[in-house]
Design a protein that fits this description.
The complex is a heterotetramer, with 2 copies of chain A (100 residues) and 2 copies of chain B (463 residues). Chain A is mainly α. Chain A contains 5 helices and no strands. In chain A, helix 2 runs antiparallel to helix 4 and helix 3 runs antiparallel to helix 4. Classes of the chains: A mainly alpha (100), B alpha/beta (463). Chains in contact: A-B, A-C, A-D, B-C, C-D. Bound molecules: NADP nicotinamide-adenine-dinucleotide phosphate (2 copies).
């Protein structure tokens, strides 16, 4: 069990390393906000804590956690998209989009 | 059964996240890719909602609603110039979430739970809350300094590093105590408190302008905290996202310190980069400075065949990006060629200038990285420096005694003429003199970048 | 358990894809023999089959498997190394090696 | 405890394997990297040896010794010209190992084992033996064709694909039967038999020269089989290596069919590429052919300022790589410049020419990919085509009716002069005429490539 998770961690590290090194400086700011948004995944943990009826303390902690994580997800993806929308080629953005 | 669905939703989500980050290798694909990632997030959430451990949805619902209400403005209304502090803030949110989940885990284990925690799991939870709380306070400090609520100068006192080292050792000791005897709550909560304190004390001695490096580093800590959460909950998607996050933060902080030609150690313990203030007064005066009138500058630009714009932190402060584009387009209409030279650490975070210029609709194929464009300065008629300072400081090339010696710079001094827009003779974040401003080929156009640019535009129109 | 292995498979797939796409045509033949050598890892399975005392049949099958896998490992790594040894820069190979 | 050690050894090994493959991105790092991978393999083995399931080491020891004895010559003595069949052979070994392990798993489960197999595990074992046995026979066929033990021509009969489809369906049916009722041995062994037959029948209709694509594809099957083994044994390192293997094989086969401008389907079911034989007789004759004497060719080369060598499969057949280098060095000594143009599918496997030339000590920075060098032919005095045919066939550019139309080629016909070394007017593997051989700027130097080159060398020396 634990060892398998260790495998996953190591492999994911490799993937992360290889993916990130390919991101051009042009997009480093969106990258930062993107990873921020993705880090909001801790929401899945928070939700369990908030919904598992483990008593007031756990629920409260969970609730706050849910709020924080959701904030990151919503805010993060929105701002990333807002930034990426702004990057345009010389040709009309439509043309650029059409390419893909 | 339900569990399997949850697990698969997580698997799919992880794949989408990876594909999303992968899409950031090209601006054309990036948007689609990140939308895919957002879909992945949605899938993961739905997958979690069916989890049988969840008995009560009202607090979850409430949290989701409230979070959305807070997140929306943070996403849509924060100006691009405030991005660094924006990122620092959301970092503290993420870390807080991880920490609280860890605490909840620990708490429930001893209140109605199994009554104990296996060493491995305890270690995971320990790292989770340790890194988490450290990141929470640390990134709040960073936010404060970037938002200039807190003083930008490094705050130092004797034996500072010793104290931090001691605290760190203490935290580690408590962590081990927890692993050995999880039931001993004081150790657990004490560890959290110390880590939180450590977060503050570690950031205090770091100058405001170095915050981006700190933020990136904290980002990777936050990632590791998330990964630890994953180990604690046996949740693979948290492990994966944590690893991705960690890698990204780590690589970016490396990249920044490299581009500033400083070691991690120097950034973290160097008490360097106190923002503009300290050196601001000292500098200037002695050496000759050729100031230029808006009219003359406009003439020069109007008849220049090749212009390279060098934006810096000042452009962000002045929010001058739109005025810059206007001026550039005017020059192009008159047949001149305009390129933008982007230094890797211009501004206050990686890619800062790119975002600002993209915002003002400058096509990204006009933005050139330092290495691509440095060769072109000798054939350039006018290098227009807009609120940049350190990234064009020749001392980095010539003066071994300079703190930024060895940092690669944009060779604005090699252009035929160089016009510098800034408010006064204040130094940049490195707080040092800039010989460029005193060079014979350089003329200074004093005043707020935006104001000057607006004037230039009308003058060039007239010319 | 199974799901974790699925994660590992998917992540390893990503890693493989990203790593292999970066290999230049120059080295495609060594790449083929290298993957061949690495595929010899099935030896770890074969050894268990050959050594677990599960009766003659299993042992025999395991034994043959061990032979095949070992052949691939030994042969594969040797031939790969032999090939890679041959790729040289214009400067003396020594110089090239020294670089790393 | 022991188990944890084993597991960690596997983790370390996996990392080393990945780093090893990663190192293949640059020839300078490659060797070190693969040595690291070999170390990783050793670690994994040691980690396995301490596995508590292993009670009896003598058969293992015997197997290791015997395997080494067979492997060593296969590693050290196989000539580089025989690499394709070498790879096909070791592929069948690998697949055989996987299959046998799978069978052992199944057998022991019902002889002294649990007496049943859980569906998931059974599915894994099923895929393992299915893909495994298919790969065994398939790659043996490929070996036979490449080694020319078997006829290179595609063997076809009516309803062939229908038969294969039927067999495939049958195998799948049996697989499902096994999953539903694992105890029913006939289904299991029947499935293996069918898969084996399928392997043969699928390769029969494929021409000898297409074998490399088949081999690459089988390589990815073999990888998947290994991954399945991993799932069956719950062994992560097998899963990881399987995935790496699968990805590599798949990407290479894609790359080859792309470079041949043919779809997978066409390669697998097209019954195409029957080797030189079929068209060999038909072609030649009608059109004028300018043959040249060794002396004249030597003069041309001796006084050429720019020469591009285009090696092809014929160089491999003639083992002429050393003679080529000699000639090239002579020309260079006389002040001429020599480059090598490597077509992505020159020869019979990806990178075939690179290895041969590397073997004869041609520095790899003199080898140019097609796209890099195609522009230089017009300024080239002599294009020296050595046993290449299809990869320089202008029909690929000009003649839409040609089977290779659209395949990117080396523009030898655009050079000022073109000297072609081949034995006769036989066609290449695509079995089609080549207008280049009839072009006015082309002169043919007939004879075995090596023989001709040796003569050329002595002549150039004399010149
Ligand atoms: N990008 C990153 O990731 C990153 C991360 C960490 C540190 N840094 C550091 O930040 C620095 C960035 O260099 P930089 O050249 O971009 O900026 P800088 O060196 O900080 O200089 C900015 C200049 O802009 C001028 N300025 C400020 N407000 C202005 C306004 N409203 N109008 C006109 N001018 C204004 C200031 O001079 P006046 O006050 O006289 O106007 C100042 O000299 C580098 O030293 C880098 O190492 C960057
Ligand atoms: N590289 C790969 O991965 C790969 C994979 C699959 C298929 N293929 C196919 O293989 C072909 C490779 O093209 P190619 O131009 O390299 O080779 P080719 O088209 O097969 O032609 C080889 C030529 O070499 C000549 N030759 C044979 N033995 C010779 C000797 N001893 N001395 C001198 N000449 C000799 C033959 O003509 P004579 O008999 O008249 O001498 C023949 O025309 C392509 O069609 C490609 O699609 C390649």
């Amino acid at each position: 069990m634990l060892i398998l998770e260790l495998y996953i961690f190591v492999l994911a590290g490799f993937v992360g390393f290889m993916v990130i090194t390919k991101v051009p400086p042009l997009l480093h700011t969106p990258l930062m906000s993107a990873t921020n948004a993705i880090s909001g995944i801790s929401l899945v943990g928070s939700m369990v804590a908030a919904g598992a009826r483990h008593g007031t303390v756990a629920t409260t902690l969970g609730f706050v956690a849910v709020v924080c994580a959701t904030t990151n997800i919503v805010g993060g993806f929105l701002i990333t998209d807002r930034m990426l929308k702004m990057f345009k080629r010389k040709e009309a953005p439509v043309a650029t989009e059409a390419k893909h | 059964m339900r569990d399997t669905i949850t697990q698969f939703s997580y698997l799919v989500a992880s794949v989408f996240f990876i594909l999303g980050l992968r899409s950031l290798t090209h601006p054309d694909k990036a948007r689609r890719g990140m939308q895919l990632a957002a879909v992945g997030m949605l899938i993961a959430l739905c997958g979690t909602l069916i989890n049988h451990q969840i008995l009560d949805y009202k607090w979850i619902a409430a949290g989701l609603v409230l979070g959305t209400l807070i997140g929306y403005p943070l996403g849509m209304w924060v100006p691009t110039t405030a991005l660094p502090q924006r990122i620092a803030m959301s970092l503290s949110f993420g870390a807080l979430a991880a920490t609280l989940v860890g605490i909840a885990e620990y708490y429930t284990a001893f209140h109605g739970g199994e009554g104990t925690i296996a060493p491995a799991r305890m270690a995971a939870i320990g790292f989770e809350v340790l890194l988490g709380s450290l990141t929470v306070t640390g990134s709040m400090m960073a936010f404060g300094k970037l938002q200039e609520i807190l003083p930008g100068q490094p705050i130092t006192y004797r034996g500072q590093n010793a104290v931090n080292a001691l605290l760190f050792a203490g935290a580690m000791g408590l962590l081990i105590t927890c692993i050995v005897n999880p039931a001993y709550a004081p150790a657990f909560y004490g560890m959290i408190a110390i880590a939180a304190a450590l977060g503050v004390l570690m950031v205090i001695p770091i100058g405001g302008a170095d915050m981006p490096v700190v933020v990136a580093l904290l980002n990777s800590y936050c990632g590791l905290a998330a990964a630890a959460t994953g180990f604690a909950l046996g949740n693979s998607i948290l492990i994966i996202c944590g690893a991705l996050d960690g890698a990204s933060g780590f690589l970016l902080s490396i990249l920044m310190s490299k581009a500033m030609n400083r070691s991690f150690a120097n950034v973290l313990f160097g008490a360097f980069g106190g923002g503009d203030a300290p050196a601001a007064v000292s500098s200037g005066g002695q050496l000759p400075v050729r100031s230029i009138s808006v009219e003359d500058a406009a003439i020069q630009l109007a008849y220049a065949a090749r212009v390279i714009v060098i934006p810096g932190y000042g452009m962000a402060v002045a929010q001058a990006q739109h005025a810059v584009r206007e001026l550039a387009e005017l020059i192009e209409k008159r047949g001149g060629e305009v390129k933008y030279a982007i230094h890797p650490v211009a501004g206050r975070m990686p890619g800062h200038m790119n975002v600002l210029l993209a915002e003002s609709n400058v096509p990204y194929d006009k933005l050139y990285d330092m290495d691509e464009i440095n060769g072109e300065f000798p054939q350039t008629d006018v290098a227009l420096v807009i609120g940049a300072n350190d990234v064009v400081n020749p001392a980095a090339r010539s003066d071994p005694s300079s703190p930024i010696y060895g940092m690669p710079i944009l060779d604005a001094d090699k252009a035929k003429h160089c016009i510098v827009l800034k408010r006064g003779m204040a130094a940049g974040f490195a707080g040092i003199e800039n010989a460029l401003f005193h060079a014979p080929s350089t003329s200074m156009l004093f005043g707020d970048a935006k104001a000057s640019l607006v004037k230039l535009v009308s003058e060039v129109k007239a010319a």
